[in-house]
Amino acid sequence: MQYSLVIPAHNEADNLPPLLAEIAALPPFRRPAEIILVDDASEDETAAVMAGLVAANPRLRLLRLPRRSGQSAAMLAGARAARSPWVATIDADGENDPADLPPMIELAIASGADLVGGLRRERKSSGSKQLASHIANGLRRRVLKDGCSDSACGLKLVRRDLLLRLPSFNGMHRFLPALVQIAGGHTRFIGVNDRPRRHGRSNYDNLGRAARGLIDMAGVLWLKRRGLAAAVAAAEEAARIEEPRIRAGRHS
């Protein structure tokens, strides 16, 4: 499977070099075809570090957003620039383990899923962050019924064409499993490693993220109840199945 790896980053100058070194150590047949670094208007040395990394590695590409736009915008910018049929995402802070990418690829191939999402095991974040995440995931899972216990995990693998058809909004990266399902796609999930942040501090606060998440969840629920994407996808699939039968009938 050929895939592009998108790494959104805001103020992650110290975390990017060791992360890229780990990605380079992946098995050759499971390394990404390209790595797209997306600088979300960083205020530290991230842009300079990215430029140095790109100069040393022809598989790296660099995008810079002119103003702070958020992780969803950075993810979509990278996906639009990607040249592969699949897009993987990973957080730039080092909390996600690149070694989990090969098993995710194997699961996508074996299951035929349109999205494979990571479920973080043995969380290493602070107690308050874990509690907030547990509450948010539980509420989202009960309301949206997406079957995902960790929608905010940064490790995801998704078909690029499907990702670019999804409704886009700030915060959509936390609702990708539900959005893919609403669009008629199939999702699978796999346990992945969780690691402590190497350097710096998180770009999110629990209270602000929770408030925005409730508003976003209401919007996704509206799409689930009123959207037509799944019905259209089912009709297209039925047409693809029926067409060979019609052709066969004409020749009989």
TrEMBL record:
It holds the Pfam family Glycos_transf_2. The keyword Ribonucleoprotein does not apply. Residues 4-163 form the Glycosyltransferase 2-like domain. GO terms for molecular function: undecaprenyl-phosphate 4-deoxy-4-formamido-L-arabinose transferase activity. Keywords: Cell membrane, Glycosyltransferase, Lipopolysaccharide biosynthesis, Membrane, Transferase, Transmembrane, Transmembrane helix. It comes from the Bacteria. GO terms for biological process: lipopolysaccharide biosynthetic process. One of its GO terms (cellular component) is plasma membrane. InterPro entries: Glyco_trans_2-like, Glycosyltransferase_2, Nucleotide-diphossugar_trans. The keyword Metal-binding does not apply. This is Dolichol-phosphate mannosyltransferase.
